[in-house]
Amino acid sequence: MNRTLTLLSFGPNGWMDQIMYGFLVTASLALATLPFGLFIGFLLALAKQSEVKQLRLAAEIYTTIFRGLPELLTLFLVYFGLQIGFRQTLLFFGVEGGIEINKFLAGMMALGVVFSAYSSEVLLSAFKAIPVGQYEGAYALGLGKTRTMTKVILPQLVRIALPGLGNLWMILLKDTALVSVIGLSDILRQAGIAARVSKEAFLFFGIACLLYLLLAIISSIFISAIERRVRRSEVRV
Amino acid sequence: MSFAEQMIPPRSPPPAVASGWSAAKTTGTIAMAFWLIVGVGLIYFLFRAWDPAKVARYGPKYLSGLGVTLTLVSISIVLGALVSIPVVAGRMSRNPLSSGIAYGYVYFFRGTPLIAQLFLFYYGLGEFRHQLEAVGLWGFFREPWNCAILAFTLNTAAYQAEILRGAIQSVPRGQFEGGQALGLNRVQIYRKIVLPQAMIVALRPYGNEIILMIKGSAVVAIITVLDLTGETRRAYSRTFDFQTYIWAAIFYLLIVEVLRNVWNWLERRLTRHLKR
Question: Which of A227, A209, A29 lies closest to B107 in space, CA to CA?
Fold first, then answer.
């Protein structure tokens, strides 16, 4: 019992400071991926409901690829693919030697493209749930396309898409665990190091699982707060 | 009083809006051109990197890896379906103890990453070697394959339990009451009335769960099970040839797309009677 407490303490004999560092890495990776993924997802959703056939098709291809590939494989493709791509480009210009791709950036890109593929579907169905009359009303009031989008459509879109996006955020949090495989010091990797050194694998992987649960609980509190906030403007019948 | 003296003379229709070369069309064409270049580039790359020796050496391994992935997923999905039944019973029971336990189970397995659960079972249980040897289970937990099956089964059981619960609760109460009024017992009501209706609701989520499991099963490569990803990693570490990853991606995309289309067909077929 005493040994367990020592292992879980902050300080030279404990692993808690390393694991909390991993906690921060996981949280910041997910937070950094979110705006990136949401932005691409939003553009994809716009492309999918465009009248131009090429745009729709291009967006569909993107979604099919990144929803069909395992997240782990996407991560490998991005991480190794970028490295090889850079090396080939450098070789093309006659420079020998490769570059180490930043692992955080690679993780962010891989998780971001997967997140954007899923979020585009959520946003698309939210777009479809908004009646055409809302657009027509806004045009009748003389609002331009951009203002219609920001003042009329987006506030409703957020309200409709929020539950779906909340689910995707939870999935994103769990997917961040995969970056430990390419060696980014997230919760799982730090717990793994602690487990290997201290030979207390069950304890440390259990702690890692509890930390992911903690992240999920914190997020659900935040999401329901946002939901309450956007629901203020809803008409009560 | 004024009135129209004659009909409005026919007029030519307004001029058609010039379907010019809009910004959207430009973007779309550029995007499609990009995909085309990527596609042609990939085919060219694979064509140039085609090496009969490598294909003879790693081709059969890829196929066996594919087999491992599919076997792993089918076993876990079926076992998970069995495990999910008591979990649903617990979730829907009025006894706070059993519903609490079922809720905790579902919350834990849906709230933590599959890869962390896998590590917890594979590395974590290895620590209880002496206790497991005492009850004769060490032989089972020593194998990464068994640990993977165990973790995947428990994981998918939690997800399937939620799917099943949602589907059962989507059946209106009147259906239960109607069954009771006909004098059917609980088992008969579930088997003949509720489940057939619930399964149609659950069909699509079940399909999504299978696809998620196929994609999620790639993490077993980390604990040295040689599934499709595992074979890919091994081939890459020996050859440093990037086409190994491209082939794995093609295989995964093929499985997922085939499954998705089969499932769409199945859904259309099973909901024929609901079409109007």
Answer: A209
Contact flag B119-A61 (C-beta cutoff 8 Å): no
CB spacing of A58 vs B114 below 8 angstroms:
no
Rounded distance between C-alpha atoms, residue B250 and residue B260, angstroms: 15
Interval B167-182 mean pLDDT = 93
State both tokens at B149: 């099956």
Instruction: Judge: A80–B214 Cβ closer than 8 Å, yes or no.
Output: no
Q: Does B235 touch chain A (CB under 8 A)?
A: no
Domains and CATH numbers, chain B: 71-226 (1.10.3720.10)
Consecutive 10-residue runs of chain A (237 residues): their mean pLDDT? 75 84 95 96 94 92 94 93 85 76 92 96 94 93 91 91 94 94 92 89 92 95 91 71
* CATH number of this structure's domain A2-231: 1.10.3720.10
Q: How many CB atoms lie within 10 A of CB B43?
A: 10
Concatenate the DSSP letters of all residues of A89-133 into one string.
Answer: HHHHTT-----PPPHHHHHHHHHHHHHHHHHHHHHHHHHHHS-HH
Rounded to whole angstroms, the Cα distance separating B89 from B104 reads 14
